[in-house]
Design goal:
There is one protein chain. The protein is of the alpha+beta class. It folds into two domains: 72 residues, Outer Surface Protein A, domain 3 (Alpha-Beta Complex), CATH 3.90.930; 82 residues, Outer Surface Protein A, domain 3, CATH 3.90.930. 22% of the residues lie in helices and 35% in strands. The chain contains three helices and 13 strands. Strands 11-12-7-13 form a four-stranded antiparallel sheet, with helices on one face. Strands 1-6-5 form a three-stranded antiparallel sheet, covered by helices on one side. The longest helix is centred in the middle third of the chain and has 22 residues.
Length: 184
């Protein structure tokens, strides 16, 4: 049996779960999420505890068991607590500014890069070098953070660019010939 799939999901107070054959809808204090699930998976709600089970031990059912449970658990957590990812901008002269709902990035290009948040996410600026992406859908928050990071990923030689908060960038050494010196 799947270790992740067989774990129960506790449903907090104020969260309602609507289960149909092919869709699960979760409504909570922060919003509402819906997700399509495999119709073979059996999702039951008893005493504010969700359980996901599979009909057979076939390969496809085993692989869908843990995935279905994780998707439903992420929806329950999203409508109660929400998700956020923090990105930091590293580099001399690199900064970010808030412009309405959008953000403006000054990251070494000849122009200002303006980004609009995906529907269901929000962007906040902390100081002038930190971006906080937040929302209730874990997938959308991760997608928005990845799009921001892809604009200027960290440089492997100087370390400047946009990175996730806490991400370590291993710097490569430069040319070895310059450090040693040339023989004439």
């Amino acid at each position: 049996m799947s270790r992740i799939g067989k774990m129960p999901i506790d449903v907090p107070r104020g969260v309602t779960v609507d289960i149909s054959k092919e869709e699960v809808a979760v409504k909570g204090p922060k919003g509402e999420l819906k997700c399509s699930v495999n119709p073979d998976m059996i999702i039951t709600l008893d005493n504010n505890v969700l359980t996901v089970s599979r009909p057979t031990d076939g390969r496809e059912h085993r692989s869908m068991h843990g995935l279905t449970r994780t998707l439903v658990a992420n929806m329950v957590e999203g409508v109660t607590k929400g998700y956020q990812k923090v990105l930091e901008i590293v580099g001399v002269g690199y900064r970010v500014e808030k412009a309405g709902n959008n953000i403006q990035l000054r990251i070494g290009f000849s122009h200002i890069v303006e980004l609009e948040p995906l529907p269901g996410t929000s962007l906040e600026v902390e100081r002038n070098n930190r971006i906080i992406v937040s929302g209730i859908d874990k997938e959308l928050v991760g997608e928005m953070a990845a799009r921001i990071r892809a604009i200027r990923p960290p440089d492997v030689y100087k370390g400047k660019g946009i990175r996730y908060f806490g991400e370590t960038v291993r710097l490569k050494p430069g040319k070895a010939g310059k450090a040693i010196g040339r023989s004439n």
